[in-house]
Amino acid sequence: MAKTIKFGTDGWRGRIAEDYTFDNVRRCTQGFAAYLLEQGYRDQWVVVGYDRRFHSENFAAAAAEVLAANGLRVYLTEGATPTPVISYSIVARQAVAGLNITASHNPPTDNGFKVRDRFGGAIDPQGLQQIEAQIPAEVEQVKRLPLPEAEQQGRVMRFDPTPAYLEQINRLIDLQPLRQAGLRIAVDPMWGNGAGWFPRLLGGGATQVFEIHSQRNPIFPEMSRPEPIQPNVDAGLRATLEHRADVLLITDGDADRLGVGDEHGKFIDQLRVFGLLAYYLLEVRGERGPIVKTLSTTTMLNKLGKLYGVPVHETGVGFKYVAPKMLETRAMIGGEESGGYAFRQHVPERDGILAGLYMLDMMVRLDKKPSELLELLFAKVGAHYYDRIDSAFSGDRKQREQIILGANPSTLGGLRVTSLDTIDGFRFNLEDGGWLLIRFSGTEPILRVYTETTRQDRVQAILQDGLRVAGLK
């Protein structure tokens, strides 16, 4: 019997040629097709896209064959396409769902299988369980219609998703001031799907855009993985200084996440970027509405919520929790610690391209460099400091959880523990309003230890105590 496929925080990911095989992608797609048919979507359209990883276009073609054979119709992207563009295409084409072949920020050995609902957002946990339950045990149970036949029958149609997405961007933001601002912008798409988008959107004026890592290279040189955190972004930070750029924008492998570097070549962590984006919407654009955040991201959002009189909703980690909450509350912004941010009047999906444009708009409207924007934010909510340690994990998860619970620390890094949240992992809340979180990754065999605190001198001490609580020291 074939290996059981389990969905994590954002779909299913695996190691190419080990468990991520054509047979298993077909099995997974058969489960997704059965789920859609149960919803009454026979003969409806599904958008299928893919990233620049090894064989992604062929895995996507295999998935399209299975969907077509099951009585669904497929819009198949003509080329590698950013995740937010694929998600918006679902709405623009009035499709009922989407399927994206991508492993996002994972190492080059991996690929993945993301599913999206008719709103372009992540499918909720209950829906993912239903898909899992429909995945057949053997590949012989999978239906297939060869791609040439599917195209000939009109069940698979290739399309360019770019024009509709560009129209949407122009509805959300006026790009002309950005083009004429005379900014020098460094962009690192991390060899991924974000390549070419900022030059296309911002070209034709006084602003200059310089890209690195813009070709397809599925081994991702100069980084361990296309994840927009240090040290993966260090080459981009050096390029910022070499080009005397005003800002560095970094998108991950499928361009749904954003990283930012300032004019001094210093990385601005993703919690601070989330705070800046919320401040931009509230203060610069004058918008009001709920904020949705995962428990692993910044408490600066809670402080902004109180200052501006908007509610802040907290969820478990992953957009399978964030997206449904955004739809439920008509949230102004939603996001998570990984650098993924979603916005109202768009799709409830992370969009690294739009987030980058909003950062630039904030710089232009306030006439400030990124480091100066941080000073503005900290003047409102105080300085916050963040770091994270990832450790490979292969032991018994339940046993590890018992070790963490049994530790019951009264202090971490010298700060008193005030309470413990177990919504998703173990978050120890600290007396300064900060926190330490210990949780298992939903996409990789990794145990993460994170902290945010107002005490810069305590960051590493808190993390080291967290490692001891987790039994990793």
The amount of beta strand, in percent, is 15-25%
Structural class: alpha/beta
Mind telling me the CATH class of the largest domain? Alpha Beta
CATH topology of the largest domain: Alpha-D-Glucose-1,6-Bisphosphate, Chain A, domain 3
Rg from Cα: 22 Å
Arithmetic mean of pLDDT: 96
In total, the number of domains comes to: 3
**Count, helices:** 16
Fraction of residues in H or I helices: 25-40%
- The tally of strands reads 21
Per CATH, which architecture of the largest domain?
Answer: 3-Layer(aba) Sandwich
Distance between the termini: 39 Å
Order of adjacent strands in the largest pleated sheet: 1-5-4-2-3-6
CATH H level of the largest domain: which superfamily?
A: Alpha-D-Glucose-1,6-Bisphosphate, subunit A, domain 3
Shape: globular
* Largest sheet descriptor: 6 strands, mixed
Low-pLDDT residue intervals, each spanning 5 or more residues: none
Describe it.
The protein is built from 16 helices and 21 strands. With 473 residues, it is α/β, with parallel strands linked by helices. It has 3 domains: 12-161, 3-Layer(aba) Sandwich (Alpha-D-Glucose-1,6-Bisphosphate, Chain A, domain 3); 173-381, 3-Layer(aba) Sandwich (Alpha-D-Glucose-1,6-Bisphosphate, Chain A, domain 3); 385-469, Alpha-D-phosphohexomutase, C-terminal domain (TATA-Binding Protein, 2-Layer Sandwich), CATH 3.30.310. Helix 10 (270-284) runs parallel beside helix 11 and helix 10 (270-284) packs across helix 13. The chain has a 6-stranded mixed beta sheet with strand order 1-5-4-2-3-6, sandwiched between helices. The mean pLDDT is 96. It is 36% helix and 21% strand. The protein starts with 11 loop residues before the first strand and ends with a helix. The protein is globular.
